[in-house]
Amino acid sequence: MKSRRRSLVPYFLIAPALLYLAAFFAYPMFQGLLLAVYDDEATLPLLDGPTVDGAEVGRLSQGSGITISDRQGNRLADADVVDNDEFATGLLTEQWFQVSGEGIEGDEVSGWMPESRLRVRDEAADGTVLGGTIRPRLGQSGDPSTALRAEPNESAAEIGRIGERVAVTVDETAVLEVWFQVVDAETGLEGWAPSRFVEVFSDDETGRIDRGTAGEFTTKFIRKMVDDRKFSSAWRTTLMLIGMILPLQFVLAMAMALVIDARLRFGSGFLYVFALPMGMSDLAVGILFFSIFSGNGLLNSFLEAIGVIDAQKLFLTADTQGWILFAIVLAELWRATSIVMVILVSGLQAIPRETLEAAELFGASYWQRVRHIVLPLLKPSIQVALILRTILAFQVFAVVIALSGGDVVTVLANETFRQYFSLRNNNVASAYAVFILLLSIASAVFYLRAVRAQEEVRPS
Amino acid sequence: MAEIRIESVTKAFGDKVAVDDVSLTVHDREFLVLLGPSGCGKTTLLRTIAGLGMADSGRISIGGRDVTYLPPGERQLSMVFQSYAIFPHMTVRDNIGFGLKMHGEDEAAIARSVDEAAELLHIEELLERRPADMSGGQRQRVAVARALAMKAEVVLMDEPLSNLDALLRLEMRAELKRLLADIGATTVYVTHDQIEALSMGDRVAVMRDGKVQQIDEPNVVYDSPANRFVGSFIGNPPMNFIDATIDLAADGSARALVGEHEIVAGAALSDHVTAAATDRLVVGVRAENMHVTVEHSEGALPATVQVVEPLGSQNLLTVLVGDSRLKVSTHPTFPAKPDQELWLRFPPEQLRWIDPATERVIYG
Amino acid sequence: MSTPAKSSAKSPRETSSGTSRETAVLPPLDDPSVVAEHRRMKRRANRGRSFTYVAAIAIALWIIIPIFFVFSMAFTTEETVRSYPKNFLPFVPFSTETMRFFLGSEGVLKGLLNSVLVALITLVLSTIIAVPAGYAISRYVFPGRELFRISVLAVRAFPIVVLSIPLAVLFIRTGLFDSIWSLSLMHTALALPTTILVVSSVFASVPYELEEAGQVFGATPVQSFRHIVVPLVLPGIAASGLFTFVLSWNEVFAASVLTLDNRTLPALVLTSLANASPAFQFAGGFFLMVPSIIFTFFIRKYLFNMWGQVSK
Questions:
Q1: Pick from C29, C41, C44: CB nearest B8
Q2: Quick one: average pLDDT of B22-27?
Q3: Which domains does chain B have, with CATH numbers?
Q4: What pTM does this model have?
Q5: Distance from the CA of C196 to the CA of which of A99, A282, C125, C299 falls in 20 to 30 A?
Q6: Three-state SS across chain A?
């Protein structure tokens, strides 16, 4: 090994990996932690007028009940109008047109008016309004003409009037976001807020603050997670599955490792077969075991063929949670035992052959050798394998989805996925993820301890 | 009584025959050394005795009990391994007592035997320690103590000293010999080190290519090798070999010629030459068994010194006789320098005559 | 022990040979009793081994039968796939109908292509980044080396689920969401720690003395790396590349979270599992498994090297 003193070369070599892990591991990890405890939409500042540059008069927290006392449009910058799902949620808009045509005085006038006053008669292929006629004010007394204003805004100065049914051309279109003047139902605080942050109820009068623009630390996502009706069943099931799978897995892996270590004829063939499930995704294995346990699957066919049952038995229904759990345990045993085996075989290969021969020569039977020599010497490998498996077991979810639809039986990782995917709740999903992380860290501490233990035991 | 009888044992690994139809008997309480170069089958033979690899055919019996296919644990023998094979996770005490524990001895008896064995090897103070932080010599003692604690009548040793440094090896050699003689176990000891073999064994079995070449007491194996291989393998320097032509006179007496020069041969040589039906033989002679003189003497061969190696107790000369290169040992005061002419005389009683076809020693 | 063999072992010669202190004399080696006894004891000695074979075959069947079942269902008619009870004859009737149905389903071909692309990008990215880092760990002693190694190890222990959601949010903000590139970036982050450790163990298996020897005989450090180290490590690097490919191919959580229209195959299969026909499931399962079966075949030599090292 090179040991050039104070060389910068190794640092250059590891720099890309470090930077990459910082950007795509450490940073998102930090963001993930933040998402779980930080609500970046917690409060909404209210402004003294319906414009973005208005002065803040106070803040309402997300979910506050309000009544709407006034509303007004406010022209949006073109950049804001692009398709942006997040932005558009709850957005109320109205269009204003800048039209030109013959005014009531017979002169040519030009100015802004709301879309409600124009009957569109002429559109371009892409939907841009090109022209139309002024709508008549039906059944209304008073001035039938329509005011044209200097700006696309009700409060702007009137610069002319135009009569009904007059044909006009549209020169420009403006999109206005509706702003609400809201009054907090509890404190009576009054101020203006853009419609996209306000949820209006069907009476058109009351509503609530949908989301805010300023963040604050909160435990509400964690509380929401803990209060979720699936939370307790999710962590219980996760721990129960780990508790059931790991011991069985260890026994099976030990058997496989001993078989491989016995150096049979076709040993490498057996090794290949034993290692096959190692590279398989939990989704593939979920499908595999679904095909076995499903109503017209392999198990039913087999049971019927040997005459144990005479009709299909349904294993994977809401009433047969026990069978679903059993299928999950089998699937995980099938899939993840190989990696434990490989770790154990590496450990076995590190035990000198003569050590085992000595034990045999001094009268130890096979089982005595396993118990007195192999297991104690494998302890570090066993520790590593068990803890690695524990960490990975927290992340299993595709098997659960495949076998239970992710509903009947659920685990923590599956809840994370459901919160994100179905419920679109990033924060609660992150809270779940952080919970998994905490459980994993607890295991990882053991993991690293086990590394040290292993290095100590290995003779120099 | 623990006589080990090996009858026609053969053991192959795939195509390679490691032990080829070997028969030998290790007498009760005897110290037999299996000696040979690596790959000669000595370790395989030891392992078939131990049961760590079963013989393909033949029979191994210990004390009249057929153990050929018994598992090692049931053969009532113990063993010291080359790597010592100490259990790293157990204390020295547990290591030494392991065999007794496996055989179901009660705790008190185990403790007593462990203490005795530890005392024999002077490792009482190590008993509660773990092997990880012990020196090679200490581990070696633990391994021997573990083997002795079993009080088995047969002790097998697989190159037990090969992992020690030279000084420690010398010390342990004597100590092991004394210990094994004291407890009177039948011992089979594998080594590739001829000095170890000659100094320790009651008898030495020299092996090559899976076959026993010669089995006899150390001095016999050294002095009267059964064949060219044994002569060349044993001794440092190895035995010298010189090609000789045989001139069978009309009266039936044989003369041996090395180049132009005649070596006086014993009277019985002619019978052996006749039996071997050959006129070419190889003369084997040990370095210390030639007479070297600076002046010519009767029946001496001329030799040219090539290399002089002073070894302290002797000077080792490499000399050229005709085409043959010989090693000759002289007294350290003997004056010799490279390119010097010397005269060598071969005492007939020290010569071993080898048939080049069979490589067997036919006479001498 | 069978009594006849034992009683015959006490031949008359033994009794006549005198005192009990004398070693018992066994019958000659070719005596039928000895032959029979040896045969019996050989069998007894091999009993454990036979048991091991039985265990090996049983475990092998437990692993192979489910795979075999899915493969056989993936290459038969849709009718057979739906039928009940299933016949146990493999690939009967053999048909590509299931496969054609699957490949003809909406999004499948695109998903396959996406999966391949993502896996390839991940493979290239992680290899480019991991090889220098692995080389540094295995060849240099430098302050911070252990810290780096331990951090990489620790990173392996962090759950994917924690990463996926903030990354999704990040990618949405930067407009990278729902692209094969964003997913590849994520998969590279997942694969990197393992790849670094495996690559470092591959380099560690090539003694540095070889490189030095090259330099002694006049090669520059780069030349000796190129001509001596590269050929020796290439198979190991290839194995780790295969590992990366399969990791990416299998990954389903991040793939489902980070994509919407550009689903990879696992994400597509997962999100359409609920209303998928059996044919779709079997053929999907087949495609998900094939790379790992090939992968395991090629890396079987490196298995213990890789995972032995990684699990340290």
A1: C29
A2: 94
A3: 4-233 (3.40.50.300), 240-363 (2.40.50.140)
A4: 0.80
A5: A282
A6: CECCCCCCHHHHHHHHHHHHHHHHHHHHHHHHHHHHHEEEEEEEEEECCCCCCCCEEEEEECCCEEEEEEEEEEECCHHHHCCCHHHHCCCCEEEEEEEEEECCCCCEEEEEEEHHHEEEEEECCCCCEEEEEECCCCCCCCCCCEEEECCCCCCCCEEEEECCCCEEEEEEEEEEEEEEEEEECCCCCEEEEEHHHEEECCCCCEEEECCCCEEEECCHHHHHHHHCCCHHHHHHHHHHHHHHHHHHHHHHHHHHHHHHHCCCCCHHHHHHHHHHHHHCCHHHHHHHHHHHHCCCCHHHHHHHHCCCCCCCCCCCCCCCHHHHHHHHHHHHHHHHHHHHHHHHHHHHHCCCHHHHHHHHHCCCCHHHHHHHHHHHHHHHHHHHHHHHHHHHHCCCCHHHHHHHCCCCCCCHHHHHHHHHHCCCCHHHHHHHHHHHHHHHHHHHHHHHHHHHHHHHHCCC
